[in-house]
Amino acid sequence: TIVLSVNQLQKVYEGKVPYQALKDINFKLKKGEFVAIMGPSGSGKSTLLQVISTIDSPTGGSVLIDGKNPHQMVKEELASFRRRELGFIFQDFNLIHTLTVEENIMLPLSLEGVPANEITKRTREVARYLGIEALLPKRTFEISGGQAQRVAIARAVAHQPSLILADEPTGNLDSKATKDVMNLLKTLNKEMDSTILMVTHDAYVASMCHRVLFIKDGRIYQEIVAGDHESEF
Ligand code: ADP
Ligand code: ADP
């Protein structure tokens, strides 16, 4: 099954001089695929992730997530769709520092209206699964960057989203923590059949994915499939 379908996607930033950041982007992610996007600074990676994550809207083409077009939804419907279907992982973790680790992981579940006892159960389960049970009562400033990213991953997957979007998840981590976080994402991908789209600058990180899409000047110009030959666009 296709989880994400990006079709002739275009994004023009209006302004004195309009700028076309995305020219004609086409690709699909099947369920259980782990795909990286690489490209030089200014090539359109953030824009692409922002449009797919519905933070921003396209000026042409479409994005379908589980066959639904979030950009055509009204505000309330979109908010609920994002909470249910998407999981976000950021470079700077985006944890809330006034909350404990456990409360951070619980937050998306409570926003979704999951019953309290179910929230506690699922939070404990995901923490055990990701090996961060001991961190649950801690404050976010008491833990390391690598631990913070594990917590952020737990928060992103606790509601079992259809699609996980990760924006340079290892960008602020040293090589040991990078390895740990990537192993965790690989495990999630394999064992839970999670579908992950990740922007990265790190060739080692990209090499752990099934496919790498290379973007330049708002176009995908190359795709490399793991253990396969390169295919030119
Ligand atoms: P990347 O993430 O690959 O570094 P971006 O998607 O951030 O690239 O940017 C792609 C291009 O679009 C760049 O030339 C950038 O300056 C431009 N751009 C990004 N966001 C905006 C915006 N809000 N308004 C105008 N131009 C933008
Ligand atoms: P990165 O290279 O890490 O993706 P960027 O510096 O390209 O980061 O972009 C950071 C943020 O600034 C993004 O949200 C992007 O949309 C915005 N941005 C980038 N270029 C412009 C621009 N020319 N005008 C307005 N916003 C921009």
Please explain how this structure is put together.
With 233 residues, the chain is of the alpha/beta class. It is 33% helix and 27% strand. The chain has a 7-stranded mixed sheet with strand order 5-6-7-3-8-9-10. It has a 3-stranded antiparallel sheet with strand order 2-1-4, with helices on one face. Helix 6 links the parallel strand 6 and strand 7 (196-199). Helix 3 crosses helix 4 (116-129), helix 3 packs parallel to helix 5 and helix 5 packs parallel to helix 6. The longest helix is centred in the C-terminal third of the chain and has 17 residues, at 175-191. The radius of gyration is 18 Å and the shape is globular. The chain starts with a strand and ends with a strand. Bound molecules: adenosine-5'-diphosphate (2 copies).
